Amino acid sequence: MLYAPKMRVTLISIGKITDAGSSVLVRYDSIVIESDESEELQAGHITEGDPVLQFLTQNPANDLKQLKQGKMTESLRAIYCFINRVGQEECLLDGGSMIVLMHKQVSVQLGLVWDPFISIEMESASNHVEQTLGVVRNVCFEIGGLKLYLQVHILENLPYRVLLGKPFKTLGSTIIQTYENGSAKVVIRDPNTK
Hints:
By secondary structure, the protein is mostly beta strands.
């Protein structure tokens, strides 16, 4: 394991994973920091060792060709929804976003009117902060016969038209299964059935 020699740490768990295609066993160590090392690494923090470095340390005769690695990038996932009973739009699926977002131009085209008194500051993944114009309540998103009613925040400058965040994922108990060939299966449950 690689860490500063002066750092006092305690091993708190050891997990093991096995790749189904091989017999290679990789040990992942988690450690708890016992004394402050820096502002970023203070006592009580839990950290993980780098699994690739751990693998190479534990298996010096092996190389990275045995490890299955993720691609540098993956395609965005999108579905088409019929919105507000007016028009169809491509909607990006983003389980990391806390809200559902729509570009102002799209909301106008769909005849949506937002409440400007409910506005929040939204921070993008690039740390850009922008005030939303407001929220539209109970917007109907129809997907394959299912109707989901979502609260949609309107933003002036978006690089996409509609983004379906966690509220969509939660309401529809949405499961996205992504495959190595780039395809994906999206399963959405009707929230109005038992």
